[in-house]
Design goal:
Distance between the termini: 117 Å
Radius of gyration: 44 Å
Shape: elongated
Keywords: Cytoplasm, Initiation factor, Protein biosynthesis
Strand order of the largest sheet: 5-7-6
Helix content: 55-70%
Number of strands: 7
Protein name: Translation initiation factor 3 subunit c
Number of domains: 6
GO molecular function, one term: RNA binding
Largest sheet: 3 strands, antiparallel
Pfam families: eIF-3c_N (PF05470)
Structural class: mainly alpha
InterPro entries: EIF3C, EIF3C_N_dom, PCI_dom
Length: about 800
């Protein structure tokens, strides 16, 4: 009965029963899927028992008020109305035929129930597979087999059981698969379709095993009986079979019925649903979480976790980074999986070396040690969780409290890496252990190579506290008390293992990690020798962006290390070329992620989190201070008339900065770090070392140096020496003698130190300086130096000649 009239009118019971035979409770779904909607609609008026409802309509009283299902029709189309129009409309007669009223029986349509239509569709599938069999068209066979599987689900939803024609189709495809040799198939797409068909028909045949046995024994019986009764079927054909046979099952319905569906049936449906369109990942996660909450074997739990963790990571793949709550859920799932594997290490192991198990319901075959190896990659999960952690840091505001809270999770990451390393050490074969552990070693170094010893001791101590006391690493023994010495041994041991690997990427990364760690701990010469002997710099330009950024960071750290050791010339030499670049942030990977073009692949590789940045202000101050100590004495010597080879300088050298400063129309007090260095340089030019030191000590960037006090002491001593040289070069024109004792008092240096400096500059440059025999006086001998007025006049004459040549080029001789 149509629902349009159900709430308004009452019908004769015969009519209602007749209609219920034609249309099931889910008539809209079945009718629309059968493709014959028009016939089904007309069948309402063509019911064979329509005469039983004629008594409800008074055909003799045409003036009476119409009622019933015909009330909305015009009078000529109502049942029993005048003329033959009604019969023609209701019975589908030919309107152009004037004898249509005499051929009503011939124009009547044949109406089939939804059940018969479904059986006809299955028969059509059977015929199409026979046709495709002739041409070995496995693509068509696969499509038709999927179609008949969906039809079976529709049949079971209506409690019609399993049609015999379905069993015939399964047997037909199974025989065809068994009679075909895969080696004879040349095309890749056809071979792929054949493999998929073989896997699916095996599953379906196994679920209908009893019916298949009966069919093989007597195929003729399946032609006589229309269907296999659902209630008489074996337990395998219950709700589990319904879900297992349906490739496009509604996951929400599966989640609601998860308590009734078997563990592996639900898990297999979730696995098959991954990657398909219009599939809600949260529903898949809910299903597996319900499975994990139920009682199951360790193997079932392991397979569930191996499915759940990738789904969690894929659920938010369209976002810039995984939400923190989802990340922590995936982290907890992985740690639960690792704990489960550790508890059952003698029985089950997850390994990348295991063979693929086609049927997840069957446990893998145990090896000689009785261990069942399950195919999977624990390192892939560790790498993905670590990458998502880094992405979240890159996308958060580094100056917010949210960033600091998120940064605390780095301890969780390091704990996970250490536990995974210890598990892999126990499970990997000896011949492949170091090769496969290399990747986890690199991840471990990622989190410690740039930290200070104090931070590394904390993170390493907490990590070992989270590990069972019985677990030990065979590569780096852990002492009772973790200290800086252990951290140095740990880094060098891990780097030595990685340097031996054939993978050039891992080898180069390990070398750079070791150099950076050594330089940050103050051993400049060892770090420099290590970098030069590795010859990494010769091929670094051909490496990927992440390695180039790491190399640039190593170079900067080397320069800072040289400065901490007061090796001014070495620091200037190391940093000079790198700081000549106008894009220092980019080459160090310290630009914000948002400024990188979104179309560039691997944007995260070109950035590093904020807490790993090397302070750009510190780099600038270190280089300018080195430039100050080297270039200011040379500048004063040159301007005083001493013949000296001028060194090339970059845009950030103190000489170029002083030139811009002197050209400025207004020169205010120092405000920035660079201003303090500039004013220190101007004071040094005059020999005023106290003012120079005062300006340099006002720079706040020195607080970022771990050994600030030692650096400042060395820096004061070096400023005194260079100020003394500048003073002698500047004022030698005005004095004939310099007292060593007086110079010692002015510059707070020992007399012996003053004598050594005077002898060195006398030897280095052609200066008319001479110490007396007692070495108490520095005598300035007369020479051919010009006065300051003569120097200005010569410079003016030179400028005049240049201007004249530009204005009158034709007068050149």
């Amino acid at each position: 009965m149509s629902r349009f009239f159900a709430n308004t009118y009452e019908y004769d019971s015969d009519t209602s029963s007749s209609e219920s035979d034609l249309l099931s409770s889910s008539d809209e779904e079945l009718i629309s899927s059968s493709g014959e909607e028009n016939q089904s609609d007309d069948s309402f008026f063509n019911d064979e028992d329509s005469e039983a409802s004629d008594s409800d309509f008074d055909s003799d009283d045409s003036d009476s008020k119409p009622y019933g299902p015909d009330w909305f029709k015009k009078s000529e189309f109502r049942k029993g109305g005048s003329g033959s129009g009604g019969n023609k409309f209701l019975k589908g007669a030919n309107y152009s035929d004037s004898e249509g009223s005499e051929s009503d029986d011939e124009g009547k349509k044949v109406v089939k129930s939804a059940k018969d239509k479904l059986l006809d569709e299955m028969q059509t599938v059977f015929d199409k597979i026979e046709t495709a069999e002739m041409s070995d068209d496995w693509i068509s066979i696969l499509n038709e087999f999927d179609t008949v599987t969906r039809l079976l689900v529709r049949a079971r939803q209506q409690n019609w059981g399993t049609p015999n024609i379905f069993i015939k189709v399964v047997a037909q495809v199974e025989d065809l698969v068994n009679s075909t040799n895969q080696a004879d198939i040349k095309k890749k797409d056809v071979a792929r379709a054949y493999n998929t068909t073989r896997q699916r028909v095996r599953k379906v045949a196994k679920e209908s095993e009893d019916a298949m046995i009966k069919f093989r024994e007597n195929p003729d019986d399946f032609d006589k009986e229309p269907t296999v009764d659902l209630e008489s079927s074996e337990p395998a054909m219950d709700i589990n079979a319904q879900f297992a046979a349906n490739k496009s099952v509604n996951l929400s319905s599966l989640a609601a019925a998860s308590s009734e569906v078997s563990f592996f049936t639900s898990l297999r449906i979730v696995i098959d649903s991954r990657g398909k369109k219009n599939v809600n990942p949260q529903e898949m996660i809910k299903i597996i979480e319900d499975l994990l909450a139920s009682k199951a074997s360790p193997y079932e739990y392991i397979m569930a976790y191996l499915t759940l963790i990738p789904i969690r990571m894929e659920a938010d793949s369209n976002l810039s980074y995984q939400p923190i709550d989802q990340w922590k859920a995936a982290y907890n799932d992985y740690m639960a999986l690792l704990k489960l594997l550790e508890d059952n290490i003698a029985t089950y192991r997850v390994s990348e070396l295991a063979t693929y198990n086609e049927d997840i319901e069957k446990e893998p075959v145990a090896d000689a040690q009785g261990v069942k190896n399950i195919l999977g990659s624990l390192f892939a999960y560790v790498e993905r969780l670590d990458d998502e952690f880094t992405k979240s840091l890159l996308n958060l505001d580094p100056h917010s409290s949210e960033y600091l809270i998120r940064l605390k999770d780095e301890q969780l990451i390091y704990n996970m890496i250490l536990k995974t390393q210890l598990y892999l050490e126990q499970t990997l074969p000896a011949d492949k252990k170091e090769t496969m552990l290399a990747r986890i070693f690199v991840k471990r170094l990622d989190h410690i190579y740039y930290k200070s010893d104090k931070l590394n001791v904390i993170i390493e101590t907490n990590a070992w506290k989270s590990v069972s006391p019985s677990l030990k690493s065979e590569y780096i023994p852990v002492p009772a008390t973790i200290d800086a010495k252990y951290i140095a041994t740990l880094v060098s041991s891990l780097c030595d293992i990685l340097i031996k690997q054939e993978d050039s990427f891992l080898r180069t990364r390990a070398i750079l990690y070791c150099v950076f760690f050594t330089a940050s701990n103050g051993d400049f010469h060892a770090a420099k020798d290590m970098l030069l002997s590795s010859k990494v710099q010769s091929n670094i330009s051909k490496s990927n962006s992440s390695l180039q950024i790491l190399f640039n960071r190593v170079v900067v750290q080397l320069g800072i290390s040289a400065f901490q050791a007061c090796l001014i010339e070495e620091c200037h030499q190391v940093l000079n070329e790198l700081l000549a670049s106008a894009h220092l942030k980019e080459i160090l990977g310290q630009q914000p992620l948002q400024r990188i073009n979104s179309n560039i692949e691997n944007r995260e590789e070109q950035c590093i989190p904020y807490h790993q940045h090397i302070n750009l202000d510190l780099i600038d101050v270190v280089f300018m201070t080195c430039s100050l100590l080297i270039e200011i004495p040379q500048m004063t010597a040159f301007y005083s008339g001493i013949r000296i080879k001028r060194l090339p300088y970059s845009q950030k050298s103190i000489r170029r900065v002083l030139e811009h400063h002197d050209k400025a129309s207004f020169q205010g007090p120092p405000e920035t770090s660079r201003d303090f260095v500039v004013y220190a340089a101007k004071a040094m030019q005059k020999g005023d070392w106290e003012s120079s030191i005062s300006y340099l000590q006002s720079v706040k960037s020195w607080n970022m140096l771990p050994n600030k006090d030692v650096v400042m002491e060395d820096l004061v001593e070096r400023v005194k020496v260079e100020s003394l040289k500048s003073y002698l070069y500047t004022y030698k024109k005005f004095y004939s003698k310099f007292s060593v004792k007086q110079l010692s008092d002015v510059f707070s240096l020992d007399s012996a130190k003053i004598v050594d400096i005077l002898e060195s500059i006398t030897t280095e440059f052609e200066i008319n300086f001479k110490l007396n025999d007692e070495k108490t006086l520095l005598v300035v001998e007369g020479g051919d130096e010009i006065t300051k007025l003569e120097e200005v006049a010569l410079r003016l004459n030179k400028e005049y000649k240049i201007t004249k040549e530009r204005l009158f080029p034709s007068r050149r001789r």
